[in-house]
Design brief:
Shape: globular
Number of strands: 11
CATH topology of the domain at 149-277: Rossmann fold
Radius of gyration: 20 Å
Bound molecules: guanine
Strand order of the largest sheet: 1-11-8-7-5-6
CATH class of the domain at 149-277: Alpha Beta
Largest sheet: 6 strands, parallel
Helix content: 40-55%
Oligomer: single chain
CATH architecture of the domain at 149-277: 3-Layer(aba) Sandwich
Number of helices: 11
C-alpha cells in the first residue's frame, strides 16, 4: 500500500506568545530600571500561595523567576492549606501596610473552605496587580484608570499584534468568568470592538462564533471550539489550558480550541502551550511597575504604558 501524503491545509499564522511575553517582560524591566532611582528601591511584587496545588506551585515559581529576571523584588508567602480565613486575611493586610510592596497577588484557586472573594477584596486597590478587586472591576467598566486583569490584557495584546487596530472588529468571548471572560469582553469593548459574551447557555454557539473576527475561548473544555465554528481568516485567542491523556499514555496540554482543525480555517491562532499562557505573567510584571509608579505619584514609565491596554 502506498502512503498518501496529504499536503498540509493549514492557512493560519501562529501567534508567538512566548516572543510577545519576552517583549512585555523587557518593557517591564526597562520600566523598573527607570523607576528604581526615583523610588530608591526596585518595584516589588508579593505572591501568596496557599496549599500545594501542583499547577499553582509551577505558576508561582515562574512568577518569582520572571519578577527577579525583570530586576524587581519578589516576596513569597507560602502558606499551609489548613490556614484559617482570619490568618490569611492577616497576611494580606500586612502586605497592604508594607510600604515596600507595590503589588499583591493571591494565587487562585484557594483551597476549599477559604472565602476567595473576601480575600481578594481585602487587597488594597492600588496594589491589586491582578485587577480583581471591585474597585479595579468598576474602573474597567467606567473606562477609568486602574489595574486590568492580566490574562485578558495579554489576550488583547496578542490580538492587536496579529491584526493591528481592532476598531470595528466583531469579537466573541466564550466564558463569563471573573478572571477572564467578563474582563476580556470589556477590554475588547474598550478597543472599539463589537463584543458578544457567550457562555454555556448561549443558543447555537457555533453560529454565534462564525460571525466573529476574533474568538476568545476561555471555558476550560479541551478542544471544544471546532474548525467549522470559525469564520475563514478569524483570529483565535485560545485561553484554555487543559491537561488531557495523550495517545502514548502521557498527559499533554491542549486548549479550548481544536488546534488541528482551527489552523485550516483561521487566519491567526495562539498555540497551547506557548500562546496566551506566557502573557499572564508578562502583564503582571507590567502592572507591578505601573502600580509602583502610581503609588509614588510618578508617571507610568513609557515602555510599560505602551504595552498595557488603555
Ligand atoms: N490562577 C490562574 N490564573 C490566575 C491569575 O491570573 N491570577 C490569580 N490570582 N490566580 C490565578
Amino acid at each position: 500500500m502506498t502512503d498518501i501524503i496529504t499536503p498540509s491545509r493549514a492557512t493560519a499564522k501562529l501567534i508567538d506568545g512566548k516572543a510577545a511575553a519576552a517583549a512585555v517582560d523587557a518593557a517591564a524591566a526597562a520600566g523598573a530600571r527607570q523607576l528604581e532611582p526615583r523610588l530608591g528601591r526596585a518595584p516589588c511584587l508579593a505572591v501568596v500561595l496557599v496549599g500545594e496545588d501542583p499547577a499553582s506551585q509551577v505558576y508561582v515559581r515562574n512568577k518569582v523567576r520572571r519578577t527577579e529576571a525583570a530586576g524587581m523584588r519578589s516576596v513569597e508567602h507560602i502558606l499551609p492549606a489548613d490556614i484559617s480565613q482570619a490568618e490569611l486575611l492577616t497576611v494580606v493586610r500586612a502586605l497592604n501596610e508594607d510600604e515596600g510592596v507595590d503589588g499583591i497577588l493571591v494565587q487562585l484557586p484557594l483551597p476549599k473552605g477559604l472565602d476567595e472573594t473576601e480575600v481578594v477584596q481585602t487587597i488594597r486597590p492600588d496594589k491589586d496587580v491582578d485587577g480583581l478587586t471591585a474597585q479595579s472591576a468598576g474602573a474597567l467598566v467606567l473606562g477609568a484608570p486602574g489595574m486590568r486583569p492580566c490574562t485578558p490584557s495579554g489576550s488583547v495584546f496578542l490580538a492587536k499584534q496579529a491584526l493591528g487596530d481592532l476598531t470595528g472588529k466583531s469579537v466573541v468571548v466564550i466564558g463569563r468568568s471573573i478572571l477572564v471572560g467578563k474582563p476580556a469582553a470589556l477590554l475588547f469593548l474598550a478597543e472599539n470592538c463589537t463584543v458578544t459574551l457567550a457562555h454555556s447557555r448561549t443558543q447555537d454557539l457555533p453560529a454565534v462564533c462564525r460571525e466573529a473576527d476574533i474568538i476568545v475561548a476561555a471555558v476550560g473544555r479541551p478542544n471544544m471550539v471546532k474548525g467549522d465554528w470559525l469564520k475563514p481568516g478569524a483570529c483565535v485567542i485560545d485561553v484554555g489550558i487543559n491537561r488531557v491523556e495523550g495517545e502514548n499514555g502521557k498527559s499533554r496540554l491542549v486548549g479550548d480550541v481544536d488546534f488541528e482543525q482551527a489552523i485550516e480555517t483561521a487566519g491567526f491562532v495562539t498555540p497551547v502551550p506557548g500562546g496566551v499562557g506566557p502573557m499572564t505573567i508578562a502583564m503582571l510584571l507590567a502592572n507591578t511597575v505601573a502600580a509602583a509608579a502610581r503609588r509614588a505619584s510618578l508617571a507610568v514609565p513609557g515602555p510599560v504604558a505602551d504595552v498595557l491596554p488603555g
